[in-house]
Structure formats: structure tokens, C-alpha cells
Amino acid sequence: MKETTTRLQYLLTQYANNACSRAELLELLQTIEQGGHDKALQATMDTILADLKPHDPIPAIDKEKIFRSIIKPAAVVSFYKRVWFKASVAAAIIIMVIGVRWFQNNEPKQQAASAVGVLFKNDVAPGGNKATLTLANGQSISLTEAQKGQIAKQGASIITKTTDGQIVYNASSVLQNNDKGDINLIKTPKGGKWDVTLSDGTKVWLNASSSIKYPSAFMGNERKVEITGEAYFEVAHNAAKPFRVIAGGQTVEVLGTHFNINAYNDEEAVKTTLLQGKVKITNGGRMAILMPGQQAATRFSNNSILVKEADTELAVAWHNGYFQFEQSDIHNVMKQLSRWYDVDVKFDGKVTRDKFGGSIPRDAPLSQVLRTLEQSMVHFKIDGKTVTVME
């Protein structure tokens, strides 16, 4: 037991200091994967944390929480090149390292970086709630800085920021005759996201670099909004007033349902993925009906609509707080990281053709995400807001 504990301590310390060789990393993964080392892991963590000499004593409850995270199987990370590493193994190491770094750098000013970890030197924090609201009169409101409570009034709708940061539109049940439903716009930057509840009760989640244009109150016989980027919808049911989403030249029509639309301009197609209900997609003169579990892809360049069975977990991973990849090339991976961490990406040398698969929490610092990707032998350098991908 003593030899096992000593070896685990050495390997974990090497990993925490980013000094692990590939052989040592494989040994560490295999050792934890074999199981039966709970006591050794606990002892190793106690030793490492004791050596850190933090500013304040570590509460026992926090230390125990980290240990439970290490030994608990969790499908957090499972990237491959040619060989898959089990999710529980890689996740355990990442959680350990993040936990160690959290206590090592436990200063109040740094704790805002993330609930999962703190920033390393020359690191980039994950994205968060950042957006602006533009009212019909052109007034721009920073939703990030806006105080809780009523922030504006548009026609018959009161706009409120809730205690958990959501924007909610509450429309009067009696609309004035001259209320035409003022058009509002919520826009997220790179590294931002936001949630909004429209006047009909429909809930919308915006991903980074996205926007939604909508009326403050839905008038007439339809509910119509327009988006760019990516958004997840939970549409309030109203059979008498269809809900229509305009995105990338296509129109999605629903009565009440849950679906995701990815309409970034730098993607090859607009992808609509249906989770519940039924939607109608129109693109030019073509039309298709989607059933739950299906995805429609419409091209920017023509009027085609391709319908196929969808990986719904993959499509809405961002909404659930993860990056998820399935046979994704490095360009696709870095495109998503660029949007969320608000960084520019450069490629130096030959670009790997390897495919990546698995999921990573979106609230992890960028360095932790890149370290996970480096299990596939691709390397990265962070320089300010630029990430270089190297051979």
C-alpha cells in the first residue's frame, strides 16, 4: 500500500505540474482504472493538499467533496485518437488537478473564474452570462450589468431581470390598440450566453455569438422571431398562433415543442434538431416535417433539406453545459472553443487528421480543455487571446 500511495502521489504531482510523460500518463490512467485504490487516492490527496500551504485552512467538507468526485464514475471526459480512455479515469484526474489548483490559488479575486477551477498563468476563463438588449427605440442595455427587477417597458410588456439572471417579458392581458409589439434584440458576444422568456411563455437559450429578434408582445395570428448563431427553444403551446423561427433563410414552424437550431454563418448548413413535438421546415420552395429525434440540414447555397436521425444529446450538449464531439476534426473542435472562450485560433505546421470524440464541461478553464485534447498528441499554446494548434 505504501509503494502504491507513493507512486500515485508522484504521478498525480507530475500531472498537476504538467510534467507527465506519455508513459507516466498511461501508467496513471491504468492504475486508477484498475480500481481498488480508494484509500491510496485519499492518502495521496491529503499529502498533496497538505504540501500546498494555502492561505486559509481547507475545510474538511471541501476536501471530502473532491475525493468523492475522484472515485465517482463520471462521463465527463473521453477523448480518443486510436484508443479510447474510459471517462471515469480521465475525469478523475482532471477533477483532482482542478481541485488542487483551486486550493493552491484560493484567493477571493480569483474565485470568480469558475466553480470548477481557477485560471492558470496565461489562461482563459470560460464564457458566461453576457449579452446586450436593444430596445425598439435603439436604447442598448447591458444585461450583464443590469440590476435585478424591472429594467424596461415596451408597449404592453414589462421586461424584468430575475434573481437568477434570466430576462422575462410579461405582457398585459389587455393589449392597447396601438401596441404593435415593439421589436427587441438580444445579442450575445463570443464567450457569452443568455436566457429569455418571451411574452407568450416561450423560453429561449442563446449560445455564444448568437442573437434573437422578437416582438415585445406577439400580435396577430402568429408568433415570429429571427435568430442568428445557435438557440434552444421550449415553445409555449398555442394551436391558434403558430410559432415561427427564421434562421439562415429557412423557416421553422411549430405549435409547441422543444428544438435546437444551429445557424452560425461559418457552418456548412443550418441544422434544426427536434426533441419534442413536431415542426415544419421550409427552405425556398421545399418543405419537410420533423419528428422527435430527427434533424434537418438546410444549405445556405441552395434550397435543399436533408432529414436524418439525430444524436440529440450531441445537438443540445451546449445547452446542458458541455462541449460534445463525435468524430470531429480539429477545425470543428477549435471553432467551438473559439466562440465560447472568445479566442482566435491559429494552426502551426501540419494539421492533424485525427478525429475527436467525447464531452468536456463548458465551465472549465481553457487550459483544462486543451490539456484533455492533448491526450490525442496534439499540442497547444495560449498567448493572450490567441491559441496556436501545433503538431
From TrEMBL:
Cross-referenced Pfam families: FecR (PF04773), FecR_C (PF16344)
Residue stretches making up the FecR protein domain: 186-280
Source organism superkingdom: Bacteria
Keyword presence, Lipoprotein: no
Gene3D superfamilies, alphabetized: 2.60.120.1440, 3.55.50.30
The UniProt record lists the keyword Membrane: yes
GO MF terms, alphabetically ordered: sigma factor antagonist activity
Protein name: FecR family protein
Species in which this protein is naturally found: Mucilaginibacter gracilis
Lineage, opening ranks: Bacteria, Pseudomonadati, Bacteroidota, Sphingobacteriia, Sphingobacteriales
